[in-house]
Amino acid sequence: MRKQSFIKGTMILLAAGIVNRILGFVPRITLPRIIGAEGVGLYQLGYPFMIVIITIISSGVPLAVAKLVAEAESEGNERKIRSILRVSLAITCGLAVFFTLFCLWAAPWITSRLLTDPRVYHTFMSMCPILPIVALSAVYRGYFQGRQNMIPTALSQVVETLVRIAAMLTLAYLFLPYGVEWAAAGAMIGVVIGELFGMLVLLISFSRDKTRKQPGAPKSVSDGGGPSGEFRLGKLFSIAVPVTASRLVGSTSYLLESILIAQSLAVAGVATAVATAQYGVLQGMVIPILLMPGALTYSLSVSLIPSLSEAAARGDMKTIHKRLHQSLRLALVTGAPFAVLMYVLAEPLCYYLYNNAEVGKMLKMMAPVAMFLYFQSPLQATLQALDRPGSALMNTLIGAVVKLVLIGYLASRPQWGILGAVVAINANIALVTLLHWHSVTRMLKFRMKGADYWKTGLAAAVMGTICYFMMNEAWYDDPLVRFIAASVAGVVIYLISIVALKLVDRSDFSRIPWIGKK
């Protein structure tokens, strides 16, 4: 078995994550062109309900299994590792089978009453088999992470993404003649097939893992004092349950958001088919563009947690402040050009991506809060690294409540409609980020340098001005050429500006892997 260092393992996962984020945008662009906004809405409507169940089944399991396997491996106890796997698989698969049967039984009521569009029934039924697949994959991912072998997890993610893209687009196209609801169901079957192939990669990797079969491994003594099975079960729950509870807040909020949007639009007098299409535009087209730069902030968050944890263990407050400032400055500097492009070039961007310029109106409304979103991940990672997960959970809960109240109030009014939901999501993003900021600054007495803000703002303003005039001035007949030229010129001007304003310097470039030394 190939075991990697922490840094190398992290880089492997980050590389896979970035590749998946880029590849994952292919169906985001192509699927709306095949099945339309209404089909995307049907495809998206069932997701939030299933995400809640997946959270219950498996969200805390990879972390718990990884931690317990790592502890057992440090003892050289292969028998204990096998027992951890058996217990974990029994729990997650048992829950998965129960919830799969429940979803199959309750599907007519869920799709007609909770989700308000009975046509989502086929998509929902197609989604049910994903539960046991995800349950198995979660346990084996935790196993390999505990063994400090990140290659199977990264490989399974890439294979899952590639198969999913091919299967969902092919099946959506083949099922389209039978109706848009069947096309959405075909796309969902493609997702299930992708998850299945990702799971098969993990199983094949596990079968090749010869070290788990070492004979005569010593049996360690439980530090819980009781029978080893009870100790493992209790330890598994003690790790998995808090993580699951924290993530359940977000997934439940997502579910209630989808239900409330559909219900509120119905109250506002929006026809069911139109409401489904509007929800598909918001969740299937606008949000993915907004989240695209998230691969950068995710990388920051993953790197920040161990660095801050190590500094906190030493009581090194200077290093904590330095690392946090570096991460937030990088999030600010890298996120700003994306926010500018999404605001200034919203309509042409959505037209060339989705062949629908109207989507740009929602994107333009959400672009101003993009910077809050990119700040949120490093701030939340800081709270987790410094043993303040309760603060992060409470902040997320407050933001979720405010979002749901605003959706119910605004989206149900005819003059707002789906734009009311956009305002509510914006308020949630800004509020949670500000609450995280308050928690971090109060705990660490941390302050950002004011110069970072005004320098970034100035560079972004210059970039936005260049983009606007190059796109809207008729210096060339073809608007696609103007769009590409505006985007490229804007990014180049921004890069020149941040170097001229000394937002980045030689030391920043020296930290880039592989090319930094050169």
N-end to C-end Cα span: 33 Å
Strand content: under 5%
Helix content range? over 70%
- How many strands in all? 0
Compute the CA-based radius of gyration. 24 Å
What is the string of helix and strand elements? HHHHHHHHHHHHHHHHHHHH
Characterize this entry briefly:
This protein has 518 residues and is mainly α.
Folded structure, characterized:
This protein is an all-alpha fold and 518 residues long. The protein contains 20 helices and no strands. Helix 7 (151-175) packs antiparallel against helix 8. Residues 214-231 have low confidence and may be disordered.
Q: What brief labels describe this structure?
A:
mainly alpha; 81% helix; single chain; 20 helices
Topology:
Blueprint: H1 6-45, H2 47-58, H3 61-74, H4 78-114, H5 121-127, H6 130-146, H7 151-175, H8 180-207, H9 228-267, H10 272-291, H11 294-314, H12 317-344, H13 346-354, H14 359-366, H15 370-385, H16 389-411, H17 418-444, H18 450-472, H19 479-500, H20 506-510
